[in-house]
Design brief:
It is built from six helices and five strands. The chain is of the alpha/beta class. It has a five-stranded parallel β-sheet, with helices on both faces. This is DUF488.
């Protein structure tokens, strides 16, 4: 099985110019939106419809939203709104991915050059890192590159 180069990126703390330039220079082919809510006003240029347009027009990058790769509302609210503990969030989200069997459901759906998108600037405390690492643990063929 050949290696899949999987990028991850967060859009916060980036201008639109920095965000789209980073994706383009990395050679990203498709952005895989792993946010639960991709139409929030806080997303600015990363709101679903705008993002899809900008990606295609500026960089010729495709876009897909896969909410099954996002935490559910309960897990997200506990962590974000109630200022929950990261280790609890991580454990709950890893359990949810296992329950959802994302390694089977995503098999063949992730491609070389895909980039997991979320809002968090730093991948260390973002579920996109957990998704990438979880899938690599199951598939053993992913090269993960976090774009900053």
């Amino acid at each position: 099985m050949s290696k899949i180069k999987l990028f991850t990126i967060g859009f916060t703390k980036k201008s639109a110019e920095k965000f789209f330039t980073t994706l383009n220079q990395a050679g990203v082919k498709r952005v895989v939106d792993v946010r639960l809510n991709n139409v929030s006003q806080l997303a600015a240029f990363a709101k679903r419809d705008d993002l899809c347009y900008f990606l295609k027009t500026i960089c010729n990058i495709d876009y897909i939203h896969i909410p099954k790769l996002a935490p559910n509302k309960d897990i997200l609210d506990e962590y974000k709104k109630n200022k929950g503990d990261w280790s609890v969030y991580e454990k709950q989200f890893l359990s949810l991915m296992s329950e959802r069997k994302i390694e089977k459901n995503m098999s063949g759906n992730l491609k070389h050059g895909d980039c997991l998108l979320c809002s968090e600037h730093d991948p260390l405390q973002c579920h996109r890192r957990l998704v990438a690492e979880y899938l690599n643990e199951k598939w053993r063929n992913i090269e993960i590159m976090h774009l900053m």
